[in-house]
Amino acid sequence: MQTALQELLDRQAILSCLDRYARGLDRKDPELLKSAYHPDATDHHGELGDHTPDSLVSDWLLRDAGRRFSQHLLLNTSIELDGDVAHTETYYQLVVGADPATAAEGQPRLTLSGGRYVDRFERRAGEWRIARRVLISEYKAALDPRDRPSHLMWARRDRDDPSYDRPLEGPPSRAQP
Fold first, then answer.
1. Distance between CA 111 and CA 70 in Å, rounded?
2. What angle do CA 32, 26, 144 make, to 5 degrees?
3. pLDDT tens, 112-147?
4. Whose C-alpha in 16, 18, 29, 79 is 20 to 30 A from the C-alpha of 71?
């Protein structure tokens, strides 16, 4: 019973780490993003090459500058545990909206891409984090929505996003972007 409980706790810690990664990107929170990685981790991010956690954040901040929003959707995750090492494969979809104020002429306003994160997690000092990542890109499509529905509450890319409100009491009173 103790072994089964520990396996469940390990799996949940790994899933929580993956969630921190996605939330860090989508809320533009570099420290939260870096917390998903061990400091000496490597990330082979497809055509963007190999990165340390610091260089990944620096590169991402440059690429993200012209985005109005992003949504990193994590789908099914397989986890193979082996002591203090775990091998995972997580399917993702990424939706990115360009900022019309800074978008280059002819740039799509919305892109959709997807693929898989293949990771080696390591538990160090009791904490699961990514030690090695290989991003496998499987598709990318450009979409071009011209109208923005007025009934939606638009996300913020900083700590003014409603998901940071504690306690959560209702719609934010802050002005929307």
1. 10
2. 165
3. 999 999 999 999 999 999 999 999 999 999 886 554
4. 79
